Amino acid sequence: MPVTPAAQVTISEVGPRDGLQSVTAIMPTAAKLRWIEALHAAGLREIEVASFVPAKLLPQMADAAEVVRHARALAGLTVMALVLNLQGAQAALDAGAHKLTIPVSASPAHSMANVRRTPQDMVEQVRAIVALRDASAQPTGVEVGISTAFGCTLQGAVPEDDVIRLAVALAQAGVDEIGLSDTTGMANPVQVRRLFTRLRAELGDRAGAAHMHNTRGLGLANCLAAYDVGVRTFDSSLGGLGGCPYAPGASGNVVTEDLVFMFEAMGVGTGVILEKLIAARAPLMAGLPGEPLYGMTPEAGLPQGFAQDAAHA
Q: What is the pLDDT of residue 221?
């Protein structure tokens, strides 16, 4: 088995949260834990494992605290959990999540539909969560992903100035990292390059991850555009599980296997072993039998003679 070099980019796996809460079936807790263990064994070192929301709203996440506690035992893993409010943040802190991630929409229409708050209200909610984290004295990170940063199915175009103003307000609220999310798969590479350039100019080291969707087939191209302007953390989902459901035949989330293959083929280390990553589809399929998975790399296989250590020679 080839040994991967030191990672030059971080692949943040969101399937156990974004993916699982987007499907109707509920993966049994034991199956979730086996899947997360397989992802970790493949070399992934940041995984969004759960969201802390009421079980009556998302029964898929009813075992969030147990999943976080189990994931914390995996060596070197940053365990992420999504939260929407103070109650969820307290539960995630109690469970021991290493990083809280909070979605804040740049589109007022989407924000009201999704969390029943305006973007400005969410900034104040984020400020309260940061204060809660600070009072806990735990070394827990707080990250925001700005949803609908590249367009909204409810509002249409989202002005880039609105996105940047929101990012600055979130930074002033004390957030550690602020990334951009193509929630509805409307972004194109030129737009991605332009908006991330502006974000990094405003926030410096606090500019965070690219969360791209493949709804219209541009997920990898948009990730590459973000990489070209300095982004080094990318969200993706094994098998493309979850994400935007609005395009027939498109699962939404960028496929982790394809994203890792792209970077490794380019000579950019991910720290992820592709053979083990593809093998991690087996516990996912066992836990969600019949759920469609996506990905060109698992279907085609690795090219003849491809070796990750050789790709970096």
A: 98
Give how many domains the chain has, as a whole number. 1
Q: What is the pLDDT of residues 33-58, one digit of tens each?
A: 999 999 999 999 999 999 999 999 99
SS3 278: helix
Residue 1 lies in a domain: no
Tell me the β-bridge partners of 178: 144, 207
Residue 4 in any domain: the answer is no
pLDDT of residue 205 exceeding 90, the answer is yes
Helix (H, G, I), strand (E, B) or coil at 91: helix
Rounded-to-integer distance, Cα 133 and Cα 152, Å: 31
The CATH number assigned to the domain holding 205 equals: 3.20.20.70
What percentage of the chain has pLDDT greater than the value 70?
A: 94
- Rounded to the nearest angstrom, the gap between the alpha carbon of residue 293 and the centroid of all alpha carbons in its chain is 17
Give 137-157 pLDDT, tens digit per residue.
Answer: 999 999 999 999 999 988 999
The reply to whether 152 belongs to the active site is no
| Domain, as residue range, for 257 | 10-311
Q: What is the CB-side half-sphere exposure of residue 234 using CA atoms within 13 A?
A: 35
Q: For residue 90, give both structure tokens.
A: 């307290």
Pick the catalytic residue from 203, 244, 278, 284: 244
